[in-house]
């Protein structure tokens, strides 16, 4: 099964006529993803990669089944895209766009919460379910099978590139993934790790989860508290990148917008210690993921 998507998932792409979105649409279809419609205002009637394009989400979803909207619109228009998606009754979105104004992100997450909708991102590479042959976004590029093979290990990653790298490590260990999710590198995202662990806990196919973490945010503290409450009972393997950042001035931004050490609890060393106390297996070196996964 996996989480979030399955073989029956139908996808709408907002901004499908853009250069990146049109390329990704082809890769998604080649992998097996069912894209039922695309939306770009003013481009209704066009066809991209065999997918009909509509002017609005309401028009696109009127005669086409849509389970999830993949949002590839410019930063200034993401809020409107989310409003339009929710108005059409679509409750699942993957927001690829980065550099969205923070005040818009606050509104987006508030709207999603009111509508009981699920958002992955913003600033995400997407997600993939290898067994179902479904991928949303650029994850895996035009050759997903290189890194992503079917299996029983879930992956949660702040980094898009490390979503693939971590899944490849699992493949090297002789296992595969149920679902790999790039949650997004921004400090405010729709589905933090704890929320996804809830889904993986309920998924019978997933036997364990590997999490790739970074400096900044309190996501790992929330995960530790969740483990201590018994919310996730399967093996959790965690690698926290960026230990060198603790030697740099506090508040320095490293890579992703969310990778900012604001206090003691957002330092990699503190995260590792806290998660270890909560029962997670900590990989101090990235290659140790291989050892932990091999022992599952």
TrEMBL record:
GO molecular function: nucleotide binding; succinate-CoA ligase (ADP-forming) activity; succinate-CoA ligase (GDP-forming) activity
Chain ranges of the CoA-binding domain: 4-100
CC annotations in GO: succinate-CoA ligase complex (ADP-forming)
Gene3D superfamilies (alphabetical): NAD(P)-binding Rossmann-like Domain, Succinyl-CoA synthetase domains
PROSITE patterns: SUCCINYL_COA_LIG_1
Active site: 256
GO biological process: tricarboxylic acid cycle
Keywords on record: Ligase, Nucleotide-binding, Tricarboxylic acid cycle
Protein family membership: Belongs to the succinate/malate CoA ligase alpha subunit family.
Name of the protein this chain belongs to: Succinyl-CoA synthetase alpha subunit
